[in-house]
Inverse folding.
């Protein structure tokens, strides 16, 4: 791991000079922090060079040029230091996420597959292995047979996550049940509402199941052949999602493929994967990028803290924010308009 602090003009150098910048840290995840005067920088040249640099590039300063050159940008030294701390927490995963996000594929499917490939690679990484060793799996609980409820009410198909005591954290059983419910909905014609019982829509993957596949290659196969991200994308035009409470990791990555996402005012959205030495693995590098830009994915990852519903709306992650007491009525009304 290496952190290099440079003047912005360095990013305007030719590609050979930029690569020479990393000569002494080859083979390590690198974060470049460019801080100073951006006014005289040749934006096209710097953009070409920085975007091919095998390092995360954070720009600190003012001007529209930063967004054309850097992976992340801010006027605040405090914010830049917070992102640096996120990088230092899990540099390999942070670097992998930045490289994946920098060049988005044309197709949704391509993005989902690329993300899963990178995620599976990190399952073999030292940071994930250390986290898993420090956080041993608890004794497996006996899962309910009714992890996902499905009902058709007045011509609307309502799919409800039903593991409320664990904030609807996704286990293999819940994943398979939800996949089956969404696959069936795809064959029907009704509008669909996706919601969650209990205090949260979904707090992400159940931590006890992380790394439970026989090996990373098999995990990649399972993740892509049972892709909740892909089937949600296919169903997106007639899908309305109701978010509330904790919506973390997969609990936000998957629903954001829907065309209409409504959040209760107590919704909290975050990507905690770096603390496990991982990146989003449920489609978040695609769904969040499509809605808010790739830089927002990296920002959520490096910050490591959840944002509230109002900020999520200002970023374009959700269409509306409503009082929690109005959430169900609002999503039903939207679904009725899709009949």
């Amino acid at each position: 791991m290496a952190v290099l602090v440079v003047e912005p003009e360095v990013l305007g150098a030719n590609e050979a000079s930029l690569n020479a910048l990393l000569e002494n840290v080859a083979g390590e995840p690198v974060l470049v922090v460019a801080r100073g005067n951006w006014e005289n920088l040749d934006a096209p040249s710097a953009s070409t060079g920085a975007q091919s640099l095998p390092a995360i590039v954070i720009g600190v300063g003012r001007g529209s040029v930063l967004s054309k050159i850097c992976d992340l940008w801010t006027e605040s030294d405090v914010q830049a230091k917070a992102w640096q701390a996120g990088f230092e927490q899990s540099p390999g995963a942070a670097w992998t996420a930045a490289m994946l996000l920098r060049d988005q594929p044309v197709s949704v499917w391509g993005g989902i597959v690329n993300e899963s490939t990178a995620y599976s690679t990190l399952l073999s990484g030292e940071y994930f292995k250390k986290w898993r060793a420090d956080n041993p799996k608890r004794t497996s609980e006996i899962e309910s047979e009714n992890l996902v409820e499905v009902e058709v009410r007045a011509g609307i198909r309502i799919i409800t996550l039903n593991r409320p005591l664990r904030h609807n954290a996704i286990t293999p059983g819940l994943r398979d049940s939800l996949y089956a419910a969404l696959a069936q909905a795809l064959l029907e014609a009704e509008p669909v509402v996706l919601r969650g019982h209990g205090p949260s829509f979904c707090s992400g993957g159940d931590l006890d199941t992380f790394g439970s596949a026989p090996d990373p290659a098999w995990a990649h196969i399972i993740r892509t052949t049972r892709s909740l991200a892909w089937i949600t994308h296919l169903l997106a035009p007639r899908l309305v999602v109701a978010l509330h409470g904790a919506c973390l990791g997969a609990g936000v990555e998957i629903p954001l493929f829907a065309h209409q996402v409504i959040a209760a005012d107590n919704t909290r959205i975050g990507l905690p994967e770096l603390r496990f030495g991982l990146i989003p693995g449920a489609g978040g590098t695609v769904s969040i990028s499509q809605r808010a830009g790739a830089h927002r994915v990296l920002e959520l990852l490096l910050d490591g803290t959840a944002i509230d519903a109002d900020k999520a709306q200002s970023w374009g992650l959700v269409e509306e924010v409503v009082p929690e007491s109005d959430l169900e009525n609002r999503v039903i009304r939207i679904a009725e308009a899709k009949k």
Remarks:
- The radius of gyration is 21 Å.
